[in-house]
Amino acid sequence: MSNETKDLNNYHYTSSYNHYNTINSQNMSLPYVSGPCTYNANMISSQIGSDLHSSSQGAFGFCFEPSPSSSEFFNPSIDQENSFYNAYNYNTSLKSHEVVGGGGAIAENETRVSASPSSGEADHHHGENSGKSLLKREADDGGDKQRSQKVIKTKKNQEKKIREPRVSFMTKTEVDHLEDGYRWRKYGQKAVKNSPYPRSYYRCTTQKCNVKKRVERSYQDPTVVITTYESQHDHPIPTTRRTAMFSGPAASDYKSSSLSPGSNFINTPRSFSHDDLFRVPYSSMNVNPNYQQQQNHEFQHGSDYELLKEMFPSVFFKQEP
DNA sequence: CGGCTTTGACCCGCGC
DNA sequence: GCGCGGGTCAAAGCCG
After folding, report:
1. Which of A246, A247, A289, A292 is nearest to A265 (CA)?
2. Helix residue ranges, H only, A175-284
3. Which domains does chain A have, with CATH numbers?
4. Which of A107, A112, A311, A321 is least buried, going by the fewest C-beta atoms within 10 A?
5. So what's the pLDDT on residue A3?
């Protein structure tokens, strides 16, 4: 059983899957990178705004290691519904290309700057200080007084309706909760309309870290798990990680890339720390032949290919049997 | 016992 | 105003 993580390009619930189907129907060769892969927030940040975040660890540290078997990492994408990004930028279309990169259908479609899915998602404020919780606490104090305050709070919330940036992945896996190196606490589960599969809500357990993620299984393809990360980790991956993984590219690495935005190489981590390399569970490495062939073709005569060979362990380029 | 999951209730925004 | 759907809370229970 393989686990595939696919770009959601502005994944918006069901629509994302349509996109997925579109890609497949067009028989596009998707960029694959197998094995556990970290989608480092710095990568995102670098695409969105140079100074967006400069945390050492990176905002989103996605290191999928879903199962004992291999995973195929597709394009991560950003749901830039957040004005936070807008404030920093920026020509989203172009930058998104860099993020999603995948050339092919994804990159063409992309444009990833999508509008917010709408309601319900407005109250993603930091920590427990969401408007909702505030209101609830106040309501617990009882009285009409709270009601009036409620209105005030609501207005305030409306004023600072800042949505966190989101990145979504579609992962073909039997495992619902993909291991990504961080520790998560499940704080809710909801049935999804038109889907027999529930959506789970997780929050980073690190104190003061307000990163959340939603995990749901596609109703159209039960083998696909949709993971949506929201906000950015402001801390490194816990050292007590339960699984091995490697990091993705740092922002600088990404920015300095000589690859064109349309290159299918966007998903391939381009730099690793030694530490990270040592953590790579080689047994799960599994490079998609098509992808490799494509990459070889693209970089065979270029410095990039050599660079990649240097940066990646040989196992990355191991030909699949 | 601490951390995590489960789950029903609640709140909010939006569309009609 | 009402209903719906998404998101969150928090008590209870589970587990190592």
Report:
1. A292
2. 251-255, 274-279
3. 168-227 (2.20.25.80)
4. A321
5. 53
